[in-house]
Design a protein that fits this description.
Layout lengths: L7 H9 L2 H20 L8 H13 L11 H13 L31 H6 L11 H28 L7 H12 L1 H7 L4 H22 L3 H17 L5 H14 L5 H19 E6 L3 E2 L8 E3 L8 E8 L7 E5 L1 H4 L6 E10 L3 E4 L2 E6 L5 E3 L4 E4 L4 E8 L4 E8 L9 E13 L7 E2 L6 E4 L2 E4 L10 E5 L1 H7 L9 H9 L1 H20 L2 H4 L8 H23 L6 H20 L15 H4 L10 E3 L2 E3 L16
Antiparallel strand pairs: 1-17, 2-5, 3-4, 4-13, 5-12, 6-11, 6-13, 7-10, 8-9, 8-12, 14-15, 15-16, 18-19
Helix pairs in contact: 2-6, 2-7, 6-7, 6-9, 9-10, 9-11, 10-11, 11-19, 16-18
């Protein structure tokens, strides 16, 4: 009987793998293939757009440009999407015979950082005549390969902190393999699969060089990992910032590392001092590039000691400010007449637009507005008002002050104070009972002001205008930095948004594959139980860290902790900068999965072990409900 001989180099490679790792890779392959072929083609987040860009790389005779597509191919993709039921949940029927561009989601996903797409497009070179569903699954198999490499990297990362084959090592690896949300992400056509692998490689290279010390080979590995992060996706760019820190910690050992941490603390302090300014009007979001605060002290302020200040300059974007009116604020006013008014004046006579309340209507895409009026203001403070009815279905509101004056000279200063939104039809001037203008007497009747920070008496942080000038026109993945910072300080209006983001994304960490169309058995109870499991795991890890504080390798743990805070923190807040659009951007679980594999931090000291696990977020459409 003839025996089959495997190549010697393959035998040596297999022998270098721990037996458990080989078993886990086999489990990961089976798991990934199930997701690849059970989930219908195109049923991952933005998968048609990601596929289209990979297809363009192969078939265009030039590098694909933004908003460029082949209409024939797009219709073929749409036909395949229609065949596999992609449009059913959207209640949409694409017109494949018309001349208008066919909707296939956000497409193409053109980017300047195409490393993932260059790799994912490789099988398309040999499948140009195949059915698009076949091409879809072929590209998915490339992501499956990245998934298997990520599993291997996870094993190696934990191995930098534990002996080979330690129980914690296989528990962490198996956890990564069997986590539904992670497998769903890593078997999709999506550059987040590449970003997850790239950042995992960076973490492994970081742990390796910090634990074993500096060498040129390890430095090369660190540089290659950072380069992979940079060229894969901007959400993996924190690796660029952490790289120098890791390198310094690999060079300086022992007590000398305190110098490095002192430098880090000093750098963070300097960065915060450069980034933040104090003195903008609290609860008011700025849309202005003016160098001054939107709040200034004024000797003859109608209410309190401060007023709102908008500074207009010729040739500069016109400034504005606005405030969220939450569902809790607007609910008591539904189906009622309200009056909106403010003290307004300027540095010279000018015509401007009155403040306007923009209202979102429940379960509708349209908005309703309070009457838009043009008023003539002078250099003397005067009170202007307008009355209107709040619709019954008003969900929340946005009070915007966009004066839009026509400049007669190079500069113009507009001032406001005592901005009020109160129930009832009023014609006179309100008399405020406190400097914050939150209540008083109006037309002989007591009233409550539903505008927060109505007289600019309180302040909060705002972004250094010099920083805004630096990033203006450049890629910034969080919308407006000003809006983002304001939303983080505006807890009364935005706590519901951020709490729902965290809760929803925790759900999708444990499940919700196929564009959130598949739930775990026992929903929603199972997700509530898993939230408690996550919370108890975090609490147990924190208690262990406290008990073993003297024996923990704090350098590696601190670096990993900072990575968690930065990567996961950015993911959690990144939608805050887009809150002014109808459907704000919400973070995806895939962003957090970049840091999944190293997150279980393992440690051995005198036979003791510990495991730190954590939770994550996922994308979903959320309508801001205040």
């Amino acid at each position: 009987m003839k025996t089959v001989k495997f190549p010697s180099h393959l035998v040596r490679l297999l022998r270098s793998f721990h037996p458990l790792l080989l078993v886990f890779l086999l489990i990961a392959l089976c798991q990934a293939l199930l997701y690849t072929f059970l989930i219908p083609p195109w049923w991952h987040y933005d998968e048609p757009g990601h596929f289209e860009f990979a297809w363009q790389i192969v078939h265009f005779d030039h590098w694909p440009r933004p908003n460029e597509w082949d209409e024939t191919v797009r219709r073929q993709i749409a036909a395949s999407m229609l065949q596999y039921g992609y449009y059913k949940p959207l209640n949409y029927q694409p017109d494949l015979s018309g001349t208008e561009p066919v909707f296939i989601g956000v497409a193409p996903q053109t980017t300047d950082y195409p490393l993932y797409y260059l790799i994912a497009s490789l099988p398309l070179h040999f499948l140009s005549g195949a059915d698009f569903a076949v091409q879809n699954r072929a590209v998915r198999l490339v992501s499956v390969t990245l998934f298997l490499i990520t599993v291997w990297v996870t094993w190696k990362s934990v191995g930098e902190l534990l002996p080979e084959g330690h129980p914690i090592q296989w528990m962490v690896t198996l956890f990564v393999i069997l986590l539904p949300g992670f497998t769903d992400t890593m078997t999709a056509i999506n550059d987040d699969a590449g970003a997850a692998l790239a950042f995992s490689l960076f973490v492994w290279a970081s742990l390796r060089i910090m634990r074993r010390g500096f060498s040129w080979q390890r430095l090369l590995g660190l540089i290659l990992a950072i380069s992979a992060c940079f060229w894969t996706k901007n959400t993996a760019w924190p690796a660029v910032g952490f790289g120098p820190l890791v390198l310094l910690l690999s060079i300086f050992r022992g007590r000398a590392r305190w110098i490095i941490w002192g430098m880090v603390l000093t750098g963070v302090t300097v960065a915060l001092l450069f980034t933040l300014r104090w003195g903008d009007a609290r609860f008011w979001y700025r849309g202005t590039s003016q160098d001054e605060n939107t709040r200034m002290e004024y000797a003859h302020a109608p209410a309190g000691q401060y007023v709102f200040h908008l500074h207009y300059r010729a040739g500069q974007p016109q400034p504005w400010i606005g405030q969220f009116i939450s569902a809790q604020q607007i609910r008591p006013l539904r189906e009622k007449i309200v009056t909106l008014g403010a003290w307004i004046w300027a540095s010279e006579p000018v015509e401007i637009r009155m403040p306007v309340l923009r209202m979102a209507i429940y379960k509708e895409d349209n908005l309703e507005y309070s009457p838009s009026q043009t008023i003539s203001i002078t250099t003397t403070p005067a009170f202007y008002l307008v009355s209107f009815k709040i619709p019954y279905a008003a969900e929340n509101g946005w009070l915007e002050i966009i004066p839009s004056p026509t400049l007669k000279n190079n500069e113009l200063h507009i001032y406001l104070d005592g901005i009020v939104l109160a129930e009832g039809t009023h014609t006179g001037i309100p008399q405020f009972s406190d400097p914050f203008a939150q209540s008083g007497i109006w037309d002989g009747q007591p009233f409550r002001n539903h505008v927060r920070g109505a007289s600019a008496e309180a302040a909060w942080f705002w972004v250094n205008p010099s920083l805004n000038k630096i990033i203006r026109g450049k890629e910034f993945p969080f919308g407006s930095l000003d809006i983002l910072l304001s939303s983080l300080q505006d807890w009364p209006a935005q706590n519901a948004y951020y709490r729902n983001v965290i809760s929803r994304l925790l759900w999708t960490f444990w499940g919700h594959p196929a564009r959130d169309k598949v739930n775990l058995p026992g929903t929603p109870l199972i997700y509530e139980l898993l939230q408690w499991v996550t919370a108890m795991g975090l609490l147990g890890a924190a208690l262990f860290l406290w008990r073993k504080a003297r024996s923990i390798p704090w350098t590696e743990v601190t670096v990993l902790g900072l990575m968690v805070l930065v990567v996961w923190g950015i993911t959690a807040i990144r939608g805050g900068g887009t809150l002014l659009i109808r459907y704000p951007l919400t973070p995806g679980r895939v962003t957090l999965f970049r840091l999944l594999s190293p997150l279980p931090c393992c440690y051995v000291q005198d036979g003791k072990k510990f495991l730190v696990t954590s939770d994550t977020y996922s994308g979903y459409q959320y309508r801001n409900k205040g």
